[in-house]
Amino acid sequence: MDSRKDPRAASAGDILVTRLMMRGGAGIVTDGGFRDSASIAELDIPAYHARPSSPTNLTLHEAIDINVPIGCGDVAVFPGDYMVGDNDSVIVIPAERVNEVADEAYEMTAYEDFVAEQVRAGVSIIGLYPCTKDEHRTTFADWRQKNKR
Question: Is pTM beyond 0.85 here?
């Protein structure tokens, strides 16, 4: 939801988010705020907002359209784009690049799992992360083979 990065009034509350969830929505993202944020956090739908906001959206925001290009958090979002979020952030992946990004994320996750294991084993991070030493590339290739990754 494009709230023009203005969280002074809520973009949605628990009733609207529940309705989106019941209609099959995969998640909700706004660069504004949510009312009822504690209740929304308990719902079985990913929900991301700038901060809680008690005033109703009618004081600042007005729904104009759906399924059109918007700006959310200084990023252009087009219908069909993918939104991926975790506890740190939300990113927008253009629909035409989603497979490329997914492949790269898979590779990066495998390498970071390897690095975490190495660091827990006492290996220095220098030359390991980022990988700048051939010995780590070789060890990673062996690790991938062993772990079928």
Answer: no
